[in-house]
Amino acid sequence: MIDKIKDFASHFFVTGDPLIYGADVSIGLSMVAIFFVLTYFKKWGWLWREWLTTVDHKKIGIMYIIASLLMLFRGGVDALLMRAQLALPNVHFLQSEHYNEIFTTHGTIMILFMAMPMMFGLFNIAVPLQIGARDVAYPFLNAFSFWMFFVGAMLFNLSFVIGGSPDAGWLAYPPLSELSGSPGVGENFYIWGIQLSGVGSLASGINFVVTILKMRAKGMKMMQMPLFTWSVFASCVTIIIAFPVLTVTLALLFIDRFAGGHFFTMLHGGNPMMYVNLIWMWGHPEVYIVVLPAFGVFSEVVSVFSKKRIFGYKSMVFSLMIISILSYFTWVHHFFTMGASANVNAFFAITTMAIAIPTGVKVFNWLFTMFRGRIRIEQPMLWTLGFIPTFLIGGATGVMLAVAPADYQYHNSYFLIAHFHQVLIGGVVFGYLAGIYYWWPKMFGFKLNVKLGLWAFWLWNIGFYVCFMPQYALGFMGMTRRVYTYGWDMGWGPLNLISSIGAVLMGIGFIFQVWQILYSIKYGERDTTGDPWDGHTLEWTIPSPAPEYNFAIEPIVKGQDDFWRMKKEGIVPMTKESEIKPIHMPRNSGIPFIMSWFWFIAGFGFTFGWTWMIVVGLLGVAGSMLARSFTKKLDYYIPVEEIKETEAKFGRLV
Ligand code: HEM
Ligand SMILES: [Cu+2]
Q1: What is the pLDDT at residue 652?
Q2: Nearest-atom index, ligand 1, CA of 483
């Protein structure tokens, strides 16, 4: 009996590695701690009512951001483990398979479970407020999107302790990801973790496109929308076209693994190159999906902190849309070396370089906005200024990679690693951090401590260059990506050591940010005005943190940067008591939460090939849908009295 249990456990739980025992223990302990704290402070009801069942876009946004910061931590620990392994020649701190697992989970987590949710967090926080709406178009779907992302991320992370992690790279190329190359359940975790959260992303994309098209305040024309909202629109249109490709690609790969299909095996007529084409048809647009909203943040920040209108608003909008369209015609630049003809490579080289034009337009517009502006260096502006040189270098090395013949030299070398981290960290992460600093007072009603923020900024920024600049050189010296160790004779030791030191500096920067948040919760400067930065757009006309209904009276917009106009005309945004009407709101619902966990159960069943569990999960999903369709009470009204009370509390009632 005992032997049987042991046998089962060793098959099911990943054993034998101290790191994993450590993770088991810390997961166990944190579960116990959470359970204990919630019970001790009698917070279960509060958690359920206020958070798990919420359909309020602001709370959903906050949950996205918390989850993404946790994932940044997990992905960051992976990064540090890799850099520890590579710091010196001939290190055997990690086994080779373990190294493969770590770069796979690091890449996947950073892009799909860190960047994407941080982005959706910002969408949720800012978009409805910027366009003067009370919520997104489909609040219930919005909650469902969040929980699908969340359970997908949990499923993916579970692979670390149960069954084994994926190890075929963050894009799971066959044949490595086929059953023959990866017989365990790791790749199944990958497929289902991403598949579930991908459904959430697709739904969010649709939700925000409809929100932006249909929910804008009266008077706000498309060409008067704030640039962040425009960038969200561009990003979401891209999501709607790209994500179905991912869904189908992963489904085909799963059929190969689960049902003996041969879409991507050389046997029986399949072809791995088909997979590579498909995955990059999603993968390339994906990098623009995450970077466009960062451009939106920079546009807002640069104009507010230069006390100027954005330079070239129209060209900003057009360049966003052009980038999102061009992003579909470049995917082959990821495999110039894999045997396409010279003409095909030339076509994709040219389309890739063409993207530099609209991107360059944006950079010039930001610079022209700052030119002769009254620049204030607050934290959001700091990250924006840090971004510009980083992104310029990243863009330049991108154009170098786009030279197809030269790419035969750079392909899969450390030069590439340096390039994409340059744009992903310098563009995406810096951009989202700028956005979080910018909208933080709106989310929570207080500002983040500046001193700790400065430490964080400089550690991240200096650490970034120390970490990634040497990698360009390492690429030229012949170091390839995904090597887990190298010999003394290669001469890569010193630069790798410097690079690892840079990674540690960034890690310390992250610790400063966590400290900054904890410190500011207690001591942060309260934002009593609702407009701490002297903003231009509608979100700054309401109190911080925003009341659940956002706008007591729906705004009527007269032009671009409407709040700025009001300020110039001496209009103070107040709530006239006589104009308040009851506000129609969506009711909370536990169904998105419950249904997503049933999807989790089904996903777990698919991962291990346990039919009974798949059936349970899918029945639960169907049951949740039925329950929703029989729900009658979908909405409620906030009474006038309550609105008056809230507005009076903020001193807005006249
Ligand atoms: C915080 C500092 C970071 C460090 C020190 C770091 C370090 C690394 C290292 C050492 C590798 C593996 C290189 C190899 O041996 O092939 C890697 C791969 C990767 N990283 Fe990062 N990284 C960081 C942040 C990020 C961020 C923010 C993103 C995305 C938003 C990201 C995305 C990726 C991807 C997609 C891969 C490729 C994985 C693969 O080869 O399958 N990284 N990173
Ligand atoms: Cu690409």
Answers
A1: 87
A2: 15
In one letter, which amino acid is 78? Answer: D
Q: Are 220 and 557 in contact (CB under 8 A)?
A: yes
User: Which residue, by CA, sits nearest to atom 6 of ligand 1?
Assistant: 79
Tokens, residue 240: 């709607």
Q: Within the chain, which residues score under 70 in pLDDT?
A: none
pLDDT tens-digit series, residues 372-404: 999 999 999 999 999 999 999 999 999 999 999
**b/e for 74-102, b at 16 or more Cβ within 10 A?**
bbbebbbbbbebbbbbeeeebeeebbbbb
Q: Confirm whether 270 is domain-assigned.
A: yes
Domain count, the chain: 1
Q: What b/e sequence results for 386-399 when a residue is b if at least 16 CB atoms lie within 10 Å of its CB, and e otherwise? A: bbbebbebbbebbe
Residue 481 Cβ contacting ligand 1 at under 6 Å? yes
Residue with CA at minimum distance from ligand 1 atom 37 = 107
Q: How far apart are CA 438 and CA 68, in angstroms?
A: 17
Whole-number mean pLDDT of the chain? 94
Radius of gyration of the chain (CA): 25
Residue nearest to atom 35 of ligand 1 (CA): 107
611 in any annotated domain? no
Q: What's residue 7's pLDDT?
A: 75
Does the C-beta of 628 come closer than 6 Å to ligand 1? Answer: no
What is the reported pLDDT for 267?
86
Q: What is the pLDDT of residue 339?
A: 87
Q: Is 600 exposed, middle or buried (0-12, 13-18, 19+ CB in 10 A)?
A: buried
Alpha-carbon 446 to chain mean position: 24
Q: Can you tell me the distance from the alpha carbon of 522 to that of 401, in angstroms, rounded to the nearest whole number?
A: 47
Task: Report the separation in Å between the CA atom of 101 and the middle of ligand 1, taken as the mean of its atom positions.
Answer: 12
Query: pLDDT per residue over 194-240, tens digit each?
Result: 999 999 999 999 999 999 999 999 999 999 999 999 999 999 999 99
Looking at ligand 1, which residue's alpha carbon is closest to its atom 43? 79
Tell me the two tokens of residue 579: 């104009």
User: How far out from the chain centre does Cα 121 lie?
Assistant: 8
Note the pLDDT of residue 173. 96
Structure tokens at 14: 């990943």
Query: What's the domain range around 318?
Result: 42-589+631-650
Mutation test of ligand 1: which of 119, 176, 194, 421 has the most ligand atoms closer than 8 Å to its C-beta? 421
Ligand 1 lined by 107 (C-beta under 6 Å): yes
- Alpha-carbon gap, residue 304 to 381, rounded angstroms: 9
Give Cα 595 distance to the centre of its chain: 23
What predicted TM-score, i.e. pTM, was given to this entire model? Answer: 0.94
> Which residue has its alpha carbon closest to ligand 1 atom 3?
79
268-to-175, 179, 181, 359, 553 alpha-carbon distances in Å: 14, 15, 17, 44, 64
Q: Give the position, in ligand 1's atom list, of the atom nearest the Cα of 108.
A: 35
CATH code at position 318: 1.20.210.10
In a domain, 31, yes or no: no
| Within-domain flag for 95 | yes
Q: How far apart are CA 399 and CA 330, in angstroms?
A: 12
